[in-house]
Amino acid sequence: MPRRRGPPGPGGRALDGRRAPAADDARRPAPAGLRPRRAGGGARHVRPPAPAAPRVPRAAPVSPRPPSGGPDDRADDLDDDDVPPPGVPASAVVTGSSLPAVPEGYRSGFACFVGRPNAGKSTLTNALVGTKVAITSSRPQTTRHTVRGILHRPQAQLVLVDTPGLHRPRTLLGQRLNDLVLATLAEVDVIGFCLPADQPVGPGDRWIAAQLQPLSEGRRGTPVVAVVTKTDLVTRDRLAQHLVEVAELLPGADVVPVSATGGQQVDVVEEVLLGHLPEGPPMYPDGELTDEPEAVMVAELVREAALEGVRDELPHSLAVVVEEMGPRPAADGGERADGMLDVHVQLFVERDSQKGIVIGKGGSRLREVGTQARAGIEALLGVPVFLDLRVKVAKDWQRDPRKLQRLGF
C-alpha cells in the first residue's frame, strides 16, 4: 500500500519532516525550480477539452523575425539575431482569490517521472492528464526539458513533471539534460521510476536506481514508485518475471504495472502517486492542464513532426525555435475575421547532410512536417495557422556552450 504522510507535528511540520499548511495559507509555494510558470505577456494554458476546439489565450507576439531566406539558406553558426530568446517563463504566484475552497485533508504536490530514454514517461504523463502536454516519439531522448501536466481531483492536485531520459551523455547537451533531471528529482514529493516491460532491467536502470537511493533514504526521503510501463507489449509470464526483477531492484517500493496506450491501470498509478503527496492547498487554478508557454508547445509540435521517419542520428541533432508568432493581417491591413496566426519557426541541424534529410527531395519532407505540425498547432491554439518553416545548419551545436544557450538549453 502507498505510504501516507503523517499528521502535522510540532512546529508546523508533518511527522515525516514536511511542512504542514497553515490554516490561512492562500497557496503553498512550489520548490524553487518548480514554481508555477507564466510566460511574458500573460499566462498560456491548455484548458480541458470542450465540444468545440479549445482556444488557448494568446500572449504578445514573440520578438520580430529577422530577415531570412528560404529553406535552402545555409548558415554554419548561430548569430545573436538568428535565434531570439525563447521566452523563458518566469515564476508567478497564483492568488488565493482564483483558487477554490480547499476541503479538509486536501493534498497537493509534485511528482516526477524518471527513467531511461524511451521508457514511456511522456505517454504516461499525457494519459494521466487526459490530454497531450508532452510530445511523444519512438525515438529516444524526445523530451528535452521538464514538461508539467496538472491533474485536478476533488481531494487532490498533482503536478506531473516529465523529464528527459537519464543516459550516459556523449555531448554537452546530454550532460545538461542529465543535470536538469537530477536537479528536478531533489525538488519533488514523489518519484515515478519508469521501467518498460519489453526491455530487461539493465545497467542503465541500475545506475538510475543508485541515483535515487540517497534521495529516498530516511524519514524525510522522497518516496519512489516503480512504474512498469508498456505492459501491453509482453506476455503475462514475461510481465510477471519483469515485476520480480523490478521488485529486487527497488526493495520496499510500490510497483505498479501500467499500459498508458491501452489505458490499463492508469488510475492505479494516479492513486498511488496521490497517496504520497503531503496535505496542502492547490497550486494552480482549477481547469489548467499545463503551464507550458505557447511558443514552447508550438516548437515541440514541430519537432515531434520532424522526428517521424528520420534516420537514427538526426533526432539528437535537431533543435527547433519559434522565431515569431502574431496575427496575420488581412488584405486591407486590418484584422482577419478568422484570427489566423503567422508562425515562423527555424529548425537547426548540425550538418548539411542532415539539412537535406529534413527538407527532402524538392522540399517534400519539409512539406510533410509542416502539414502534420500545423494540424497539431491549430488544435492547440484553436485558430487557423500559416506555418513558415526554415532549416539552418548550426555546426556541432550540441557541444557548443554558446549555441546551446541561444537555443534555450
TrEMBL record:
Residues 15-28 have a biased composition (Basic and acidic residues). Residues 1-98 are annotated as: Disordered. SUPFAM superfamilies: P-loop containing nucleoside triphosphate hydrolases (SSF52540), Prokaryotic type KH domain (KH-domain type II) (SSF54814). Residues 74-83 have a biased composition (Acidic residues). It is found in: Cytoplasm; Cell membrane. Residues 258-260 are annotated as: G5. Keywords: Cell membrane, Cytoplasm, GTP-binding, Membrane, Nucleotide-binding, Ribosome biogenesis, RNA-binding, rRNA-binding. HAMAP family: GTPase_Era. An essential GTPase that binds both GDP and GTP, with rapid nucleotide exchange. Plays a role in 16S rRNA processing and 30S ribosomal subunit biogenesis and possibly also in cell cycle regulation and energy metabolism. GO terms for biological process: ribosomal small subunit assembly. The keyword Membrane applies. GTP binds at residues 115-122, 162-166, 229-232. It comes from the Bacteria. Residues 115-122 are annotated as: G1. Residues 310-395 form the KH type-2 domain. Belongs to the TRAFAC class TrmE-Era-EngA-EngB-Septin-like GTPase superfamily. Era GTPase family. Residues 141-145 are annotated as: G2. Monomer. InterPro entries: G_ERA_dom, GTP-bd, GTPase_Era-like, KH_dom-like_a/b, KH_dom_type_2, KH_sf_prok-type, P-loop_NTPase, Small_GTP-bd. The lineage of its organism: Bacteria, Bacillati, Actinomycetota, Actinomycetes, Kineosporiales. This is GTPase Era. Residues 229-232 are annotated as: G4. GO terms for cellular component: cytosol; plasma membrane. The keyword Cytoplasm applies. Residues 162-165 are annotated as: G3. It is a peripheral membrane protein. CDD domains: Era (cd04163), KH-II_Era (cd22534).
